[in-house]
Amino acid sequence: MISYLLIIISMVAATVITRFLPFIMFPAGKETPPYIAYLGKTLPYATIGLLVVYCLKGVSFQSYPYGLSEALSVVLIVILHHIKGNSLLSIGAGTAFYMILTQLIFQ
Q: What residues contact residue 90 under an 8 Å CB cut-off, 6+ apart?
């Protein structure tokens, strides 16, 4: 019973620390350090790039459907994001389109 209590207290402490530490280290009235501002500008793009590579790593271009459903979905995502500029819409529609292609078209 004590070990469960210690685990729960440790988890709560870790969660609280990770939530409040940025506000303690970078208060509202203080200027953000240049390195942190740089990371804030570059990390979202790096994260998206990493996710794209991760999602497309298992695509086989040597067997049917030759990566066609993935390629078409990526094209749809790029077009939708260019037109609408809404990441949630682009990713959601791309995912739905990919699922329709893999489940109904390219069985």
A: 77, 78, 80, 81, 84
